[in-house]
Amino acid sequence: MKRLAFALALTLGAPAFAEAPADTVFRHGAVHTVDSLHPAAQAVAVRGGKIVYVGSDDGAAALIGGKTRIVDLDGRTLMPGLVDGHMHPLAGGAQLRTCNLDYAPLTEEQFRQRIQACLDAEPGAGPDQWLLVSNWYRQFMRPPGTDATKTTLDALKTGRPILVVSSDYHSALVNSRGLELAGVTDATPDPAGGKITRDGKGEATGILEDDARSLAFSKLPPTLPADNDANAAAALDALRRQGVTSFLDAAASPESLDAFTRLQKAGRLTARAHFAPVIDPASPDPAKVIPWLAGLKKRYDQGSLHPAPGITLRNAKMFMDGVVEAPAETAGMLTPYFVQKDGVWQPGEARGEIYFPAAVLKPLVVALGRAGFDPHLHADGDRAVRESLDAVEAMRADPNGRSVRPAIAHDEVTDPADYPRFRALGALPVMSYQWGKLGPDSLDGAKDVLGPDRFSRMEPEGSLYAAGARIAFGSDWPVDRLDEWFDLKVAMTRTGDGTLGPAYDGVFNAEKGLPLDEVIRSATLDSAYELHQDKVTGSIEVGKFADLIVLDRDLRAISPDELARIKVLLTMVGGREVWRSADFPDRRVK
After folding, report:
1. For the stretch 55-79, what's the b/e string if a residue is b when 16 or more beta carbons lie within 10 angstroms of its beta carbon?
2. Inter-residue contact 125 to 567 (CB < 8 Å)
3. Cβ–Cβ under 8 Å, residues 430 and 495
4. pTM score, two decimals?
5. CA-to-CA distance for 77 and 563, rounded, in angstroms?
6. Which CATH class is domain 95-217?
């Protein structure tokens, strides 16, 4: 009988007799474990970077020694750290440190004024020194329907080349001087995977879509390693303040890999870092892609996971299409976008782009699966989603592709026939929840060009959840501001924060929001599953790494709207405290 009681105590997380004291004990809390067997607790103990106890305050008392740090939660929530399954951290850090339009609604004149101020702040810049401008919310130009062109930039008082990057990262605007230096003329052909926008006379407007942006980006001087390190450090600082303890760089450049690796070796990495290099649609031959990825993995991947955060490289990114929203309309659709004819919106002819045709995509994804790389596909339009699922299906038919964890990011417009395929194929939809609200991009940029049926089911988290899909969360920062808790609030309510104006108030569409437990699980355990670390993170269980965050309120005692106002008071990664708010002083309670 005593043996049975002892075994049961261990199963529930009670400490073994004569167990060494914990390094840290959290007590008096509302512990949200994301463990379906034991969903709630009062106390958690940590030793050697791992969780050694989950249970009651009384049970944790046995693990308190003379050197144990005690954190009194006083009813606040302790939960697993957030796992962001799709972001672009080096770019996010860079945008915190550069000329930035801050996603603001701007008229053409305000657009010019903001950029002119950046130019004026660099009076010593040379005539060929590029000005890089970030976070242009293209769909929020005012009045609605306004779009900037090279002519807009050419009116500025400068002879310098200017490159303005849209916040969705799929469009860029270049002035005439920039087009000249980039070698872009009216006769320049569209590159594979991109488009040079032209007006009715065939003249390049200065707008470069998707891979056409590289024509200008390739002319920028390389960022110095010290600047990349500073950008990566700025990103990590922003992430730990939000409670993010793991992330996937969903378009990893060599510069990003190098910068985060340098920080890791210097002991400055404060989140588990996963990387997905981008496969060029112009060079999709598996015989070349797989050795290239294997070489990167050999150079950067640090192997099995440990309590201290490290680097992994086992994902590969493919952009299947562009974006749904006008004026780009580069997402691949099953049926044409709508156009306005005689004042009426009706189907036109354009169906957007597919950058990896099926005949190329399927053997590539099968080869990735055989080599043990997880495909991570960007797919905004329903045709891109379907062809991505078709490729995953081909991969699953291969015996070596059955243990891979493929992800399809965004899935903004997905045909209902494909909802159940995510579960059937074990494909993870990685959703950017903040897009499921009314805004200039969705209402002004998508409603009319999609037509009523497609718009009514845009951002289909509710339908995917109902179909049994395992949903992961990815903020896509810096496409949007880094505000993880606002994103999770939108997942529940399908509403914004009321700051964009009355036109954007109300519920987004007919799609339903997600319940709280699913929202939290998607941003913890299921995103950890996406990154092959669900065995060691994503929930609060004995034996897992102590990737933990403290919130300023009890998750279960607040309204969904209040979720957006949550503040992270403490972030711990592998038992090491990497962030503590001034509002949560370390009192070393005994």
Report:
1. beeebbebbbeeebbbbebeebbbb
2. no
3. no
4. 0.88
5. 12
6. alpha beta
d(CA 104, CA 100): 10
Residues of the chain whose pLDDT is less than 50?
1-12, 14-17, 589-590
Give the tens place of pLDDT for each residue, 546-583.
Answer: 999 999 999 999 999 999 999 999 999 999 999 999 99
Residue type, 279: I
The two tokens of residue 475 are: 């903020």
Report in angstroms the alpha-carbon separations of 56 from 53, 163, 230, 520, 542. 9, 57, 42, 22, 14
Cβ 390 vs Cβ 434: under 8 Å = no
In angstroms, the CA 544 to CA 107 distance is: 51
CATH architecture for the domain at 2-80+543-580: Roll (2.30)
What percent of the chain is predicted at pLDDT more than 90?
88
What are the structure tokens assigned to 252, written together?
A: 């990893």
Residues in the chain: 590
pLDDT at residue number 588:
57
Task: Say what the pLDDT of residue 167 is.
Answer: 84
Return the structure tokens found at 61. Answer: 């008392």
**Domain regions of the chain by residue span:** 2-80+543-580, 95-217
> What radius of gyration, in Å, describes the C-alpha atoms of the chain?
25
Tell me the C-alpha to C-alpha distance, in Å, between residue 507 and each of 124, 437, 469, 504: 49, 7, 23, 9
Q: To the nearest 10°, the Cα dihedral for 177, 181, 185, 189?
A: -140
Structure-token match 């000249």, residue found: 180
- Distance, in Å, from the CA atom of 488 to the CA atom of 486, rounded to the nearest integer, reads 5
